Amino acid sequence: MKKLPDISQDVSQWYNEVVYKAELAEQSPVRGCIVIRPYGWALWENIKSVLDARIKETGHKNASFPLLIPESFMKREAKHVEGFAPELAIVTVAGGKELEEPLVIRPTSETIVHYMFAKWIKSWRDLPLKINQWANVVRWEMRTRPFLRTTEFFWQEGHTAHTSKEEAHEEALLMLDEYVKLAQDYLAIPVIAGEKSATERFAGADATYTFEGIMMDGKALQMGTSHMLSRNFAKSFEIEYQNKEGVLENPYLTSWGVTTRLIGAVIMTHGDQKGIIMPPRVAPIQIVIIPIYRKGSEEVVREAVQELYSKLSKKYRVELDEDDSKSPGAKFYEWELKGVPLRIEVGPRDVENKSVMVGNRVTGEKTPLELDGIDAAVGGMLEAMHTELFDRAQKRLKDHWKHEAKLDTFGPAMDKDAGAYQTGWCGEIACEDKLKPFKGSIRCVLKNKSFDSCFACDKNSERDVLVAKSY
Ligand SMILES: [Zn+2]
After folding, report:
1. Which residue from 215, 336, 223 is spatially nearest to 269, judged by alpha carbons?
2. Domain containing 443 — which CATH number?
3. What is the pTM of this model?
4. Are residues 430 and 368 in the same domain?
5. pLDDT tens for residues 77-108?
6. 73 and 191 inside one domain
7. Are strands 34-36 and 68-70 parallel, antiparallel or unpaired?
8. Sheet holding 205-214: strands in order across?
9. 429 C-alpha to center of ligand 1: Å?
10. 423 C-alpha to center of ligand 1: Å?
11. Residue 4 domain-assigned?
12. Distance 419 CA to ligand 1 centre (A)
């Protein structure tokens, strides 16, 4: 097989090839849409199952809303339609006839969900209402990249309604916090959470919270968002309820989502020259067992690997690679490319010694392990690997993260080598726009204040911002 492009020279090309070579996805006949192959989908399912459990534990219920939305719905909230209009795919003909009203393929579901909320929310007793759906959406993107930016993508979108602004705000921050935990505790990706500037907000939100990862090339990736929607949504869709005093009021709404882009984040955070590295807690295959046959001892080895497989697969996601058309070397190469955390090699001498060789995908080390007690030992190795991956990514984040007072200094550096810059900002769009020539943007407004003035002018800065190039 052809080698992957040099990751230290061209991360972008490395990414484009590794996605296909590792069989995560395949290009489809429709531009910007990908086929997610079983190995990639299994990763998404593992991420989904972790998050879905948390969504339910935090009091939300799953439901499903239609893929098609009447075009007029999109137009009800002015900012929303303005933001989404350029990306909409619209069905105008169906059943062989021109439709009376065109139908939009959902780019997000606020409008249809709020239409239903208006029917379901009548009294303060109906609140809070907390709904989530797992779905695919379509946004007509001009420049696409597998997982990172695709025309069709999969995600979850949460939609909630509350009696008070404070409660809605708590909800938006709670879900942001759940996302941060998902990224750090399962994907082993350290992230920076903050609030979007007005220009980067979700179309129609009063506040958008984001969490951003810094990828290996120093560019920021927005990994998910959580929004406090403007009250206009509730007004436009006539969501009204009677409060305890019998007065009609509009509820406060939130929405929040993460997408299959998280798969792109995993690849762009943990990969190396050999391929991708799957974070152990969500890896589709955590352990691969490879028999090493020598003439005359095939049967002994075959029995040993099958016994090992049945023991380990009770606790872990295990693959037994018995394909005898490939050499062990070819198999090592393939499983390293796919980023399986642990590789167990079993040869005749190992069977004799009641031990096996375990290869660690992160460190590249090979360690002998006794068969007795191996199930606990590999569990320890997988956990250590999660920490190792996180620490490595954390170290890189710190290396990329610099503090700089003025754009004159960091602008050219950012343009050339990317990187994340913490700096001050006066809050004005005119200054934000000055980042454009350097291909940077404000990724988020941080909580801390370590700069007294704006990166572009002499006005005061209330809170620091994080500036970077982004995907
Ligand atoms: Zn300024």
Report:
1. 215
2. 3.30.110.30
3. 0.96
4. no
5. 888 888 888 999 999 999 999 999 999 999 99
6. yes
7. unpaired
8. 61-62, 129-138, 152-162, 252-259, 220-229, 205-214, 192-195, 441-445, 464-468, 420-424, 401-403
9. 8
10. 11
11. no
12. 21
